[in-house]
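Structure, all three chains, one model.
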Amino acid sequence: MPHYRHHVLVCQGTGCLSSGSTGVLKALEEQVQAQHLSDQVRVVKSGCFGFCMQGPVMIVYPEGVFYTQVTPQDVNEIVASHLKNGKTVERLLYSDPATHKKVEDFGDILFFKGQRRIVLDNCGSINPEDIEEYIERDGYFALAKAVTKMTPQQVIDEIKNSGLRGRGGGGFSTGKKWEFALGAKGEPKYVICNADEGDPGAFMDRSILEGDPHSVIEAMMIAGYAIGSHQGYVYVRAEYPVAVSRLEIALAQARDKGILGRKIFGTEFYFEVDIRLGAGAFVCGEETSLIRSIQGLRGEPRPRPPFPAVEGLWGRPTLINNVETLANIPRIIRQGAEWFASIGTERSKGTKVFALAGKIHNTGLIEVPMGTSLRDVIFNLGGGIPDGKKFKVAQTGGPSGGCLTEEHLDIPLEYDTLTEVGSMMGSGGLIIMDEDSCIVDVARFYLEFTRDESCGKCTPCRIGTKRMLEILTRITEGKGTEKDLTDLRELAQVVRENSLCGLGVSAPNPVLSTLRYFEEEYLSHIRDKHCPAGVCEKLLSFTIKPDLCKACGLCRKECPVGAIKGAPKQLHSIEDETCVKCGACVSKCPFKAIARGRKPKQTPEGHIDNTRVAAEARSHADSNNSVTTVH
Amino acid sequence: MDSISQLEEIKNRRLADRPGRILISMGTCSMAAGAKSTLKASVDEFAQRKLEGWDIIQTGCLGFCDREPLLVVEKPGQPRVVYFGVTEDRARQIVANHIVNDHIVGEWVLPTEVATYSG
Amino acid sequence: MVKLVIDNLPIEVEAGTTVLEAAQELGIDIPTLCYLKEVNVIASCRICLVELEGHRNLVAACALPAAEGMVIRTHTPHVLYERKKVLELLLSDHPFDCLTCFRNLNCELQTLAQEFNIHGLQWEGERNVFAVDDLSPSLVREPSKCIRCRRCITVCRDVLTVSIYDMQGRGFDSVQGPAFNDSIQDTPCTTCGQCILVCPTAALHEKDDTDKVWTALQNPDMHVVIQTAPSIRVSLGEEFGMPQGELVEGKMITALNRMGFDKVFDDCFGADVCIMEESTELLTRLQGNGGPLPQFTSCCPGWVKFCENFYPEFMPHLSSTKSPQQIFGSLVKTYYAQIAGISPDKIFSVSVMPCIAKKFEAAREEHQDSGHRDVDAVLTTRELARMIRMSGINFADLPDGKFDSPMGYASGAGVIFGASGGVMEAALRTLYDKLVGGEIPEEDLEKVRSFNELREAEIHMGERTVRVAVARNLGEARKLCDRVRNKEAEYDFIEIMACPGACTGGGGQPIYSNLDKWSLQIDLRKSRARGLFEADSQKKHRKSHENPYVHKLYEDFLGEPSSARAHQLLHTEHKARPLYTNRGDYAGDKVEHRHYREEHNLLH
């Protein structure tokens, strides 16, 4: 079987064919023949790359060089320069050459290129169910180093010097946490891995446990050695069955290999890890609730102090670290605090995993150095907003966080900066919204989440989140008043300041931060009874397009509230005041004559402001245009 | 395990004897996207063609949920190639084209300018 | 010791003291709602918030351990604003039916609302409405009035170890209640009523039976008699602003006479009869001719239910003697009816008890040995006080009255039944006299008079040593029972009372809506018990069997203790019961109010 140096893929999709790729293919085949490259270059007809606008398209492997708008005349140059001499024909590259490099490894795929994978390093590269694959990639060497060559204090110093901060949301110094646990009096001590990931849209902990469970086990053992504990628990939600089973397998293998258990690496240190399943309550991610849950009690927080480091599980000193935090530990021990501290920013070291979700091309998990800009994350790694829509807002930290707007695109993603702008790092959920998202609806969504997840123990959170949700619902239904905004602000403040645990304290964040940046949009709902994004159901209006309506009367019969007026052969109309926006008429109409759209803005007197409607229509048309130009 | 040298033994043994590998992402999102069928098809295709010297490995999630199922081919002495959206059918074709014939199926390779593809 | 500064006042307290306690030492009054000293310290209501220097948010003083160098401000305008707003939130989920509420003018939430000058709510919205559970003959649960302070949960779980309550549901919809929101009657609730005493609102209250009594009093054909439990005479005065524990026996009798009761009898007479029977029973057991040892007292209906539910194997150990209330009830409709020449079906027998479990006891199916319902209505101290107030009686100024004959005279032993260790002491006085002769030495009695710990003693009676123990509440009862069950200790006779401090601290006693409620209750129990022992010391007869009226009862009517007739009228059988029954007639889900009062009147 000949070994080809190059594979040249010439697109023979419809798009490229129409722009002349048959000629290109023919020219290429001739040239290869002529230059005696047949046994070195294999020419392949390929399917559509989806890049038709730049056709004809050709890709040369293994470099993965992408040539666009290739003409038969260009083929000579490609063969002479690239295929014979390995020199890329720059002029034919995609108009943005900076983004165009060869596909050689993960690191060169754009999605992975901006990433710096430390905790996700093994994820996707090793078999999580084979401990030897982990060992092959230096797994358990950090543990071996810690227990045989370092004192507990040295381990803690290393972690402290690395500048690692808790990745679960709080951002407290991990080294300090360990030091408190080391200094706490009481036996036995416990190490808990908090894998109760609860933010909607965040799943980095799940991925780590699924892809690299040993790194977490190794880290827990190192932590156990450092603080003098011999028992660890992984508290993981039962909704993560894959993570649980991989963890179980990993634990069994670690025991089999004689790593987990007694006399670890020939020392007197011993350690065991058990799994505790949670039922997935959001509040159980809060450490005191988590502890109660492990103890078999109702998952509810208790006031701190005493902190778990002093009085935790079963009343004993307990160290609780999040999965992502722990996954950093082996690397820090292996490669040193200095190495770790060289990544990231002044006050936020290392990397952070974000879960990209929402209106973004590349949904998924990415790991970037602390301090990477939001713009980089969204537009480079994330591939930008689909359908040519405009970026509106990014929600960080899930229901406990806040929103980042266009003006924040260039701030560095790190703990303190995010807090300063009214958001928070949180566990790393990053939900991207475009211009079609209604900010009031978003705030309402998060409040609904926290209202549902509030345990109900303390007054401000139990009743406050409910009242906030009521006000927000009112506003989205067009029943809000301007006083509601004041009330909402004050209520948010009361809930934030007086709640018992982090859930309540942070629950108002989505409201406060959206109010801070999008007050106008709130006011539009209140004053104009208008939802600019066209999301809020109750603010929609249903209208009949006169040119399409055949006056068949089907919609009139379907309407549950009799809001549609008309008679046979007479143009129908919908009474907006009576309409309950159920949408039944839309699905019934055989002629697609009923339009569902945002209600036009109203002047205070309730009259439709025609100038605004016109402007609206224009801007809508504009955005439609922009869509077509991109495609 | 008594000492660090035992760990090193394992590591060295594995690095010395390195077969070609197919890595298939098998996180929760991957499975939701159909990675189990991808795996089944790959294993089946390897068996039918009696291909030897290859490991087919399930891994955790690579993070690129949008393009799952992902399949990575690590052929000794060759660059690592990541395929996306690997359905059962694509998996069989990748085995035939890439593994057997050394023909990288460019169409399904995670390209450099990912954003322009609509999965 | 740690030093801290509260409102610019320096103070030094022991490590472990909370900021709330430190402030109280300084005389600074921080309002609380969910807090119950040493019992419920969960920082959930957020009313006791204070400013802690260097801390971004306010902190709950009740659960904040004082630490060196802390600087606390308790009443800044900011703190007051936040407290007021939290209170407003709490009120926004509360039914505003204060006028018709059981705890009107005696409600902690109402008091705080007034203190905080609340005259409107900034945030109004949906309120929780839950069905009222009034299926139990003793207590009513109105979850809509619950403020989720959880005192009932903690007291039931930690003090009484019965644990019928927990939070049900989550978040805004959460509410305290029995598992699956079942009716209380389907749980192992002992109906001791301690949850009522600690409830800051009327989410838990006794089932009001005053109307039943008024109806009987109105009926000219009915002969209404009332028996008054020992501890009522030392607590009723408190309802009318009199000092705690003051003996108001005479005034109480006068008030009852004026309200139209035909006869006012003393339940302590029943207690004396109870001792006659119970000590005879014990003696038989000690001699090896009766049931197994130890013998448990059975005069507390809360404890009896607890034993039936949790320790079914102890059924043969429970004394078969009825409680004084039920003894009295069957005697009223037999012995008294015969003497007075009244047909028993024309007698309406009322008891006034410090207890809501007595309502449950009176309603038990088996308690109709007289051929009629032995006791027709049970009032608590609180209900009696309400009736007296309604009658326009100026209680404090009443002249002293005297109990009616023949069931109105009791020995001192009968009176101390209301105090913890009292039943034990009364029994020992008689037993000693029977076995040794004469007065039992005072030092032996000291051993069983207890306020604090579970008491155990060995009392020598001639050649026989009687090993006794006294449990002061159900939590201690559980410890004691487990010890007996596991054969870690052996006893001959055990007194158990359900409520902390026995009947003096019963669930039917006056409720104090003070902030420092629990410790106050302990003091109350002490002063009430002192009152009882004072009454005992004034009595001519100190031993039950010396009571001449008791003698007459046996001579004329019963024969002798443990006779066939005594067995028929004064003894009962105890049966084990399942912990949970699911009768399914109460759905505690959020619905409009549903009342079961009429359909489920277990008394008729």
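Chain A touches chain B through 81 residues (CB under 8 Å).
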